[in-house]
Amino acid sequence: MSPDKLIYMANQIARFFHSQPEQEAAAGVAEHINKFWEPRMRTQLFEMTDADNEGFDPLVISALSEIRRPEVQQ
Amino acid sequence: MSNVRQKDYGTPASRAEATVTLTVDGREITVPAGTSVMRASAEAGVGIPKLCATDMVDAFGSCRLCLVEIDGRRGTSASCTTPVEAGMVVHTQTDRLKKLRKGVMELYISDHPLDCLTCAANGDCELQDMAGAVGLRDVRYGYKGENHVFARDNSGETNPRFMPKDESNPYFTYDPSKCIVCSRCVRACEEVQGTFALTIENRGFASRVSPSMHETFLSSECVSCGACVQACPTATLQEKSVIEIGTPEHAVVTTCAYCGVGCSFQAEMRGEEVVRMVPWKDGKANRGHSCVKGRFAWGYATHKDRILNPMIREKTSDPWREVSWEEALAYTAKEFRRIQHQYGRTAVGGITSSRCTNEETYLVQKLVRAGFRNNNVDTCARVCHSPTGYGLGKAFGTSAGTQDFDSVEHTDVVIVIGANPTDGHPVFASRLKKRLRQGAKLVVIDPRRTDLVKSPHIKAAHHLALKPGTNVAVLTALAHAIVDEAIFDESFIRERCDWSEFEDWASFVSEERHSPEATESYTGVPAGELRAAARLFATGGNGAIYYGLGVTEHSQGSTAVMALANLAMATGNIGRPGVGVNPLRGQNNVQGSCDMGSFPHELPGYRHISGGETREIFEKLWGVELDNEPGLRIPNMLDAAVDGTFRGIYIQGEDILQSDPDTKHVAAGLDAMECVVVHDLFLNETANYAHVFLPGSTFLEKDGTFTNAERRINRVRKVMTPKNGYADWEVTLKLAQALGLDWNYSHPSEIMAEIAATTPSFGKVTYEYLDKMGSVQWPCNEAHPEGSPIMHVDGFVRGKGKFIRTEYVATDEKTGPRFPLLLTTGRILSQYNVGAQTRRTANVAWHEEDLLEIHPHDAEQRGIVEGDLVRLASRSGETSLRAKITDRVSPGVVYTTFHHPDTQANVVTTDYTDWATNCPEYKVTAVQVSPANGPTGWQRDYDEQARQSRRIEAVEPAE
Ligand code: SF4
Ligand code: SF4
Ligand code: SF4
Ligand code: FES
């Protein structure tokens, strides 16, 4: 999907978790993305953040370490 | 006939627990206190003659045919209005009674036509039955006197009393000449339906039934629910289908395939022809009531537009070519295998249907997971109630409504938010209105003044007419008021929830910025009114919340659902009759399709695909290894299609092109695919982009189950052979076999057995058990053998109820100079969803086209008058439709429905979605409205494209 749309979706999730208790926020974002994002979307997320973090909510960035990196697509 | 007509006990059942024993004609019988003598007799097997009584409505006592003698009482008593007493001795047949009854009948018959042999109700008429029952043999008064029967008297003078037949309603006729003025219809319209469309005009001999102010049925307030027709003992109110076909000879109990109320019906048949559908009194969702859709709008099943032969084409620009089932299925299987080989295992997927049965849905998701070996399966619930699943799952631990519909009878305060039940869930609305007439209080939270806000004998205590898109702000403000005024239920919270989570939440909602005063400026809801509503809900007794798509279809849909759960927990309104959080589900089997594992991240029973133990259950049974990663959701599939990584889709019974937002994006996605398989009744809009069309079957043509909004599993029973050759489950089965899967089911009951074996909440569900119980509500297993009418009774499914902070985030869909108005969408009573079925019935009499509701102020500014064709434009696109000027919508807000493809309201909706579930934000779009002089370019192009792609190649006649 378009990079803008992916950033938008990730940031929308982050926006919800911003209001949650601080210690749960990053883990919440990571859990949500792990649970609902198909590997293609997570692959694209990492492709983009590996290049640079521009546009992403900082909470998404701090959640990255807990988001599962999909195995290389067949 | 006796096997068709449902038993009528004369008066409604009493709910009392105490019992009373009496004797009727020498038979001893024990009944609940408050039962009428008539009903007690009926239960003892004694049928007392009656005309004005029916167990649909309260007794009225006007016909005096039901008289009985009671030992120790002087004179005679009307058995329908006399309650039983302990030790009563009742005689139903004495010389005196016989004489009295004959006299009564004689009077009735003297003003009734004697054309029984050619009357549509012949054999199904209570007047006829009673004449027989009392032994009426002649009528002394003759037929010459004053009457309502003949248009002219013998000398040819017109008879002023005579009223001609009213045939205006497409489904039933009103023939005043046959009316016995028993008022059953009037009472049914009031008590059962709650519309108050009928009155008895004039008095004495002159009295006659009249819709509204002496109008025709069609132009009156009547919503064509059919309750009066069912109540009428004569042919006065009669289904046109019975007039045309004759009386039914057998009946089968089945479930309506329209909305999430899931009404039970008796399909009354003559051979394989449906004569009529009559609501089934023992149906636990509807209790003998129905709406116009289920009762009358089943004609689509035999509509000429139905496609009965499979068709294929290589390119969507080609005309369709009719082929055999074998060829269509082999072609599909080959294409899917080719695509997977070429583009990878995850390049294909499927969409399950919330109109199909649980069994059919289960098979489609199984086909995707076990056959395609990925999890790219989704369902239309994505675009309606996916936030319910997410929000309630987080808060309570299970993704479904907490109550049964009966629960509303115990409710004291009702919040209805983002739902328009009188149109969307009519039978539930009738039950709700009944409770409101008994004195329960109502709070409506909706941008539009829905019918519930004010209708005959109903008035909402508070209508919070919020700006579209501000649900979360309003709900958090309600919570603010409750915490602020310390009217939360501390003992409930301490016992059932985590107190420290509550404290965290309470301090969050208490922040000044969430107060009604602070939010008023952008929600548009006056703070005083909001606080009063909060007080009423928190302190007014049993509080129940009912909500619909106006809550879920927002960028904060999931957050709003959590906010509702918070409110219910904070006020202690969970876990008993009369309370709860209740989603009103759109389509008949949305609940079931979610239960059956239609979501890409979940196996049946809401178990995440990453769970090894759950996967193992299915892997063992299906003999394949399952993908442990979540699959693509519908919007993701479309994005992936445009990216070229998703190329083939099997869509059962959904019209995503018309029902999903941002039509252009959907069209682009479908257009990019190489094999789109549409399995449906009609060439729907999505089929314009399809390569394979597999004809579907209707609910009348298959066995299975639907699960309604109260988690009730209802049986669907086959009453006719599928016109297309196969029930939908057989088509999926054959497709699986064509793909080389070793599937063998010979009946849907075997699929249910597999569901029960793999899904704990369905553990005890079998067809035999459903036949025995009528229906059950899941969870239904060893722990809950009778099913679960109410959930979270002793504790939440997840343990402790979870309070979650709900921060309001304004949608990014904002008004501005170019698009200054907010569009919100909804539905109306006579049409269903995208209208594919209802548009193919006489229901179009009520809704020929989608209209745009606009406030007089906004209309005037734009020079728009009632009925003008207007152009409705947003950032995504534009369409044109006619304007309806009304102050039901506030200034700044416009409203339309989405039942007609010509309008394509979704051309204007955007692709913003709920943050958690990608449920589209249908309910808020910034738009501009201006006068138009014809269809928009898009509408013309679309029409042309649709016409082109619907061509079917003429088949050479066989030699
Ligand atoms: S069809 Fe329903 S709404 Fe219409 S008059 Fe009869 S009971 Fe009332
Ligand atoms: S229309 Fe039927 S139900 Fe109504 S008063 Fe006449 S006979 Fe009775
Ligand atoms: S559409 Fe809904 S309310 Fe109407 S009859 Fe069917 S299930 Fe009942
Ligand atoms: S049935 Fe009792 S008075 Fe009519």
TrEMBL record, chain A:
Q: Which InterPro entries match?
A: Formate_DH_dsu (IPR021074)
Q: What is this protein called?
A: Formate dehydrogenase
Question: Pfam families, per this entry?
Answer: FdsD
From TrEMBL, chain B:
Per UniProt, residues of the 4Fe-4S ferredoxin-type domain are 170-201, 213-242
Q: Please verify whether the record's keywords include S-adenosyl-L-methionine.
A: no
Q: Give every 4Fe-4S Mo/W bis-MGD-type domain span.
A: 249-305
> Which CDD domains does the protein's record reference?
fer2, MopB_CT_Fdh-Nap-like, MopB_Formate-Dh-H
GO biological processes:
formate metabolic process; respiratory electron transport chain
Q: Where is the 4Fe-4S His(Cys)3-ligated-type domain?
A: 96-135
All copies of the 2Fe-2S ferredoxin-type domain together span 18-96
Region of interest (Disordered), residue spans: 932-959
Cellular component, GO annotation: membrane; oxidoreductase complex
Keywords, A to Z?
2Fe-2S, 4Fe-4S, Iron, Iron-sulfur, Metal-binding, Oxidoreductase, Repeat
Which is an annotated GO molecular function term of this record?
formate dehydrogenase (NAD+) activity
- Record keywords: rRNA-binding included? no
Question: What family is this protein classified in?
Answer: In the C-terminal section; belongs to the prokaryotic molybdopterin-containing oxidoreductase family. Belongs to the complex I 75 kDa subunit family.
In Swiss-Prot or TrEMBL terms, this protein is called Formate dehydrogenase subunit alpha
